[in-house]
Design goal:
Belongs to the ETF alpha-subunit/FixB family. It comes from Flavobacterium lacus. One of its GO terms (molecular function) is electron transfer activity. 27% of the residues lie in helices and 27% in strands. By secondary structure, it is an alpha/beta fold. It has a 9-stranded mixed sheet with strand order 9-8-7-10-6-1-4-5-11. A hairpin with a 2-residue loop joins strand 2 and strand 3. Helix 2 crosses helix 3 and helix 4 (216-225) packs parallel to helix 8. The longest helix is centred in the first third of the chain and has 17 residues, at 16-32. The model has no long low-confidence stretch (mean pLDDT 94). It binds flavin-adenine dinucleotide. Residues 206-208, 232-235, 248-251, 263-265, 267, 269-270, 273, 283-286, 289, 302-304 line the site of flavin-adenine dinucleotide.
Amino acid sequence: MSLLIYAESADGKFKKVAFEIASYAKKVAESIGTTVTAVTVNTADVSELSKYGVDKVLKVSNDKLSTFNAKAYADVIKQAAQKEGAKVIVLSSTTDSIYLAPFVAVGLEAGFASNVVGLPLSTSPFQVKRNAFSNKAFNITEISTDVKVLGLAKNSYGIVESNSSLSSEDFLPSLNDADFTIKVENVEKITGQVTIADAEVVISGGRGLKGPENWGLVEDLAAVLGAATACSKPVSDLGWRPHSEHVGQTGKPVATNLYIAIGISGAIQHIAGINSSKVKVVINSDPEAPFFKVADYGVVGDAFEIVPKLTQKLKEF
Ligand code: FAD
């Protein structure tokens, strides 16, 4: 028996979340007296996993899996779990993993808990703490099935280094046409930018920036900090920015170390999606803007004056 993680990668390289769930799984595995096995798809170099306590990696190389396909990937994870006799399977909470996890759980007749934060409160019975109500509350969930699938909330555990002597083997799951009933017709890649999912820092702009022609402010600050760019919903609805940047309750969730909101009022639907970020900084000309109530640091003033100065100062470091 081993604990299995799905170590996500993109363009042949592990995503950072893979290291977070490896770190988490290592600790859970210790508490239930087992080892950590990772399964990964089309990842060129798997050796990095040895820094985060993974004992074994199952490498899947298959051209048919070069584009993410939830059903097929879920079948790969299911077969890996069955091969290893895994009773606990840990996935992250990226868009892909959120999509995958229910398929994996159904395939293994497993109980599934999403949005898990922290280590299991108890392993017998198996109880985990989960974010609820857009991260405003927690609930305690007990999973009573033999096999358990956990979706770890992003950036909730962190990356912890612990060396292991990693072994790796090629894994050839058997896939058939039924695995590919979801057809991916087109994939548009965002290039040259840090993605919101992988970013440590996100710089987000709202309607206070007046128009798309002013987004240089956001992009320049993001470039200095190696950050991803994001926006409020109206900004993407207006077509100022692509929908892939829309964050909030109905957009992408953000759980970064630093979230800087520029010209965003802080409506409840926006806050719901970003309030798991560790440090929130708000720049807004209206001292009554609701965002200031949840901010760790706030600057009251005109973004068009403040942001270029901030970017310049950071460049000088
Ligand atoms: P505004 O509310 O127009 O605020 C602009 C802010 O910029 C103001 O606070 C203003 O003081 C400030 N400002 C103006 N000029 C300057 C300046 N020169 N310098 C600095 N600050 C300045 N919204 C989301 O973002 N994400 C969601 O997922 C989301 N989901 C929703 C779901 C539903 C069902 C509904 C009903 C709404 C949802 N919304 C969502 C919309 C949300 O309610 C707000 O309307 C939206 O977040 C407001 O966007 P904003 O802050 O960019 O714009």
